[in-house]
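for ur thesis appendix - TetR family transcriptional regulator. copy paste whatever u need, i formatted it the way the template wanted (i think)
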Amino acid sequence: MRFNKLTFSHRKSIYCKILRAALLISKKSGWSSVSMRKIAEAIGYTPPVIYEYFENKAALLLGLTRYGFVVLSGELMQARSASAVPKQQLLLMCKAYWDFASDEPELYRLMFGVGTTRSDPNGLEKASAKIDSLFCEVIGDLPLAPYYTCWSVLHGLIAIKLIGKSLPWKISEQIFAKAVSDFTNVLVKN
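the 3d part is after this line
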């Protein structure tokens, strides 16, 4: 029994190393530079070991995308738990979303297909639905149009910055703060 636990723990460790290596390679050289061979070199294994975890690069990118949604969901839950007041929760959650995109631009690009092809839009519905549900828990039973309008503005500002358009980050932050404040007043009544 002990052997099985160690094996599972060891496999999980390798899985995490693979994801971290792929993310580091993407940060240095972009997603097109990520390969099973480069990942294997980075973690000190042979490429066949990588294929034990991921069938191909598309499967690896899908795994990374799911990981990104798990991390983002965790950050949103943490932000929401910092206040009991719905308006403040929404403000904190939007800020956490913004900060995630700022801190992890490569992962955000992969998750949302910004400047790249989204790895598997159909297979990620459950992962991305968690993000929506976290926000909807705060805003309640409003029509979804205002929520999606808010998300579109937030995501649009992030996408503009990530694809390298000329809108300065400071101005983006100011627009973000104003938009989130305005939308919070519409989306949350208390």
